[in-house]
Amino acid sequence: MIVLRRELGDVLRDSRQRQGRTLREVSSGARVSLGYLSEVERGQKEASSELLASICEALNVPMSVVLRDVSDRIAVAEGFDIPDTVPAHLSDGFDELGSSDRRAPEDLQPVG
Q1: Residue 65's closest CA among 15, 9, 5, 7?
Q2: How far apart are CA 11 and CA 111, in angstroms?
Q3: Helix (H, G, I), strand (E, B) or coil at 81
Q4: What is the fold of 4-104?
Q5: Angstrom distances, CA of residue 63 to CA of 13, 19, 41, 79, 98
């Protein structure tokens, strides 16, 4: 079974570790206890939207990027092929990035 809090925790931990930062550094920046952040990263506690915003800010990673990574992980676990695009209705302001192939979520195709 896919558990959202575990996927979110994995994405947050991966982001922190890619930056070479410790739990202590991020917990201090996010103003959350080290123990609680550890539980969030291990998928044992649900992060509120306010706490998630604080953690993302401490990691200097946009929440939208974290949530997209979580969404991609869940889609893969569900067996869906993930296009490397942003749906047109979400891409306002992204045209300067050169994204020309955009598909809506209903265009996702099952793998296999």
Answers
A1: 15
A2: 22
A3: strand
A4: 434 Repressor (Amino-terminal Domain) (1.10.260)
A5: 14, 16, 15, 24, 22
